[in-house]
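Propose amino acids for all 315 sites.
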C-alpha cells in the first residue's frame, strides 16, 4: 500500500501531459491555425477540404474566392450552433472560415482558431470540441497571426484606449419585422452593383437571429476584403480566414462589428503606424466598410452615428 501514492501521482502526471498534448488544457491562443498543406491546386484542394470537413461533422454554408488563387470555405456545426444559442449575440460565433491559398508547391490551408473566436466573441463555450474536430479534419501544424494571448485578454479585447470592443457594434438599422429584415438583407447582400456577395446565411436555432457573411469586392481598397488582408499580411499563409465580413440580425435590429475591433482582434500585433504593414494604412477602411454595410442592409436608422473622424490611428 505504501507504493499506491507514487503510482497515483505518476498516473496523474501522465493524464495531465495527455491533456496538454491534446490541447484540452491551453492557456494562450493565436488567431489562426495552419493545417496540413495539400499537393493539388486551390480548386482541387477546396474539394478535398470540403470532404474532410464533412467527415468530421461540419456543414459547408459558404464558399467564395476573395482573390485569385485564394478560396475561403465557411462552415458551421451542431456544436457551433448550440453555442451560438447561449449568448445574446452568439450568431457571430456560429461559423468558422477556412482559407486555401495556392502556392508554387500546392495549397496552404489555414483556419480561424475556434477557441480564439470563442473568447474574442465572448461565447458561452471555449470551442475545445470544435478545435479538436477541425484539427482532425484539416490538421494543425502550427499557429500564427499574433503572439499568444490569454482568454481573459481576448474576452475584454480592445486594441487601444478609445477604440471599439465587442460590446460596441455598428448600428445598421431596424425593420418592421424579422422576416422582412431577413429577406431584404439576404437579397441586398448579393448585389453586384454594390460590389458585394452573400457568402453565407446562417440562422441561430430557435431564435430570430441570423448571421450573414458579406464578401466585399468593391473597387475601393478600403472596402475590399482581399485588399484589407493583403495590406497588413505579407507572409503565406495570410490571414484570409478573417473573411468574409459578418452582419448580425437579432429580432428586428441589424448590426456589424466595427473593423476597428474585428480586424484588430485578428491582427492584434500590427503597429498603429509604420512604413510597412500597419493599421495607419487602413485609416479610411472602418468608415468605408460601415458605409458599405449600411447600404447593404438599408435599415431604418433613427439617428446617424457621428463618425469618429477617421479609422485606425484617430482616437
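Proposal:
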Amino acid at each position: 500500500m505504501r507504493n499506491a501514492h507514487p503510482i497515483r501521482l505518476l498516473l496523474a502526471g501522465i493524464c495531465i501531459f495527455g491533456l496538454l498534448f491534446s490541447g484540452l488544457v491551453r492557456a494562450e491562443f493565436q488567431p489562426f491555425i495552419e493545417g496540413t498543406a495539400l499537393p493539388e491546386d486551390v480548386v482541387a484542394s477546396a474539394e478535398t477540404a470540403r470532404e474532410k470537413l464533412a467527415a468530421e461533422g461540419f456543414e459547408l454554408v459558404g464558399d467564395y474566392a476573395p482573390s485569385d488563387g485564394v478560396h475561403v470555405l465557411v462552415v458551421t456545426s451542431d456544436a457551433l450552433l448550440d453555442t451560438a444559442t447561449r449568448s445574446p449575440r452568439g450568431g457571430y460565433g456560429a461559423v468558422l472560415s477556412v482559407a486555401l491559398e495556392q502556392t508554387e508547391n500546392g495549397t496552404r490551408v489555414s483556419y480561424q482558431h475556434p477557441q480564439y473566436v470563442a473568447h474574442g466573441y465572448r461565447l458561452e463555450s471555449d470551442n475545445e470540441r470544435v478545435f479538436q474536430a477541425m484539427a482532425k479534419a484539416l490538421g494543425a501544424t502550427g499557429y500564427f497571426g499574433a503572439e499568444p494571448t490569454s482568454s481573459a485578454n481576448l474576452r475584454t479585447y480592445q486594441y487601444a484606449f478609445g477604440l471599439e470592443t465587442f460590446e460596441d457594434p455598428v448600428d445598421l438599422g431596424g425593420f418592421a419585422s424579422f422576416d422582412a429584415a431577413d429577406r431584404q438583407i439576404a437579397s441586398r447582400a448579393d448585389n453586384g452593383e454594390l460590389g458585394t456577395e452573400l457568402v453565407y446565411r446562417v440562422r441561430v436555432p430557435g431564435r430570430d437571429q441570423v448571421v450573414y457573411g458579406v464578401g466585399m469586392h468593391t473597387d475601393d481598397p478600403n472596402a475590399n476584403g482581399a485588399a484589407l488582408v493583403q495590406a497588413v499580411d505579407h507572409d503565406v499563409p495570410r490571414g484570409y480566414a478573417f473573411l468574409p465580413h459578418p452582419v448580425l440580425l437579432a429580432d428586428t435590429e441589424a448590426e456589424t462589428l466595427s473593423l476597428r475591433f474585428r480586424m484588430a482582434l485578428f491582427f492584434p500585433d500590427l503597429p498603429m503606424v509604420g512604413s510597412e504593414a500597419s493599421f495607419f494604412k487602413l485609416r479610411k477602411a472602418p468608415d468605408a466598410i460601415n458605409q458599405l454595410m449600411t447600404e447593404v442592409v438599408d435599415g431604418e436608422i433613427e439617428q446617424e452615428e457621428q463618425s469618429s473622424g477617421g479609422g485606425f490611428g484617430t482616437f
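Residues 28-297 form a domain with the TATA-Binding Protein fold (CATH 3.30.310.70). The chain has one domain: 28-297.
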